[in-house]
């Protein structure tokens, strides 16, 4: 696979966008303002800054996507870093309001499921989900989702939906042994093609009006966890570790765990196999 360049990323995304206007398909991603950036600290942080600046003049941010070739301070969940070297992954953030606000609690799961559906056709083995929204191939993490919301009094929250997918890292370029990239998993897709497909998939997901129960079912269909699996769940801040059996998810997408014969419901945690 040839090394992707920033120019190729810009060119391909523009071409795909134009085509979707020309053929009348009016894809959800085509309706977004779209910026492709050579280098940024973090697309989520950029989205927050833009939103904050506009708010000074009481201007709301219109639906937008930011796609970066490189991030210098990419952020992961729970304060971790997200390594984002140039031309090695898809680093993107969409800012929008939800078409159906009641979907808010399951949104991180929905975005994970949409990304897994979009990645899957490029792979020989399935792209699965580890709760809440790690994208996993062959037991190794290939991507993740960072949803943040910015509340404004009297109006629905602006959602900042960031995602990162490892595309072309070689084994030695990955931060941990439990990570992988799509090229390592045999995918043939180019970075610009993948970037457009993923932005498109997430834009379509955010425009969707789907009952929460269906989103939870879609997520469960791609879950790495099976009912009865023993999981170890580390809860942030508390340093508390819970070991129990996976019981499924609540209708809001929270994790149900059986611990010593009683059910615990977890809002957030780092989940691993026990
Ligand atoms: C995770 O920890 O699994 C979530 C990773 C999310 C990374 C993406 S890359 C684009 C966006 N900008 C960031 O700084 N983080 C998210």
Which stretches of 5+ consecutive residues score pLDDT under 50? none
Let me know the largest β-sheet: 7 strands, mixed
- Alpha-beta classification: alpha+beta
Side-by-side strand order of the widest sheet:
1-2-3-7-6-5-4
What form results from the Cα inertia axes? globular
Mean pLDDT: 91
Proportion of helical residues: 25-40%
Helix count, per DSSP? 5
Radius of gyration: 18 Å
Determine the N-to-C terminus distance. Answer: 38 Å
Q: Work out the number of β strands.
A: 12
Work out the strand percent.
25-35%
What order do the SSEs take from the amino end to the carboxyl end, as H and E? HEHEEHEEEEHHEEEEE
User: What bound compounds does this protein have?
Assistant: biotin
How is the topology of this model organized?
Layout: H1 6-22, E1 33-37, H2 43-56, E2 64-68, E3 89-96, H3 107-119, E4 127-130, E5 134-137, E6 140-152, E7 155-166, H4 191-206, H5 212-221, E8 230-235, E9 240-249, E10 255-259, E11 262-266, E12 270-273
Parallel strand pairs: 1-2
Antiparallel strand pairs: 2-3, 3-7, 4-5, 5-6, 6-7, 8-9, 8-12, 9-10, 10-11
Helix pairs in contact: 1-4, 3-4, 3-5
Bound molecules: biotin.
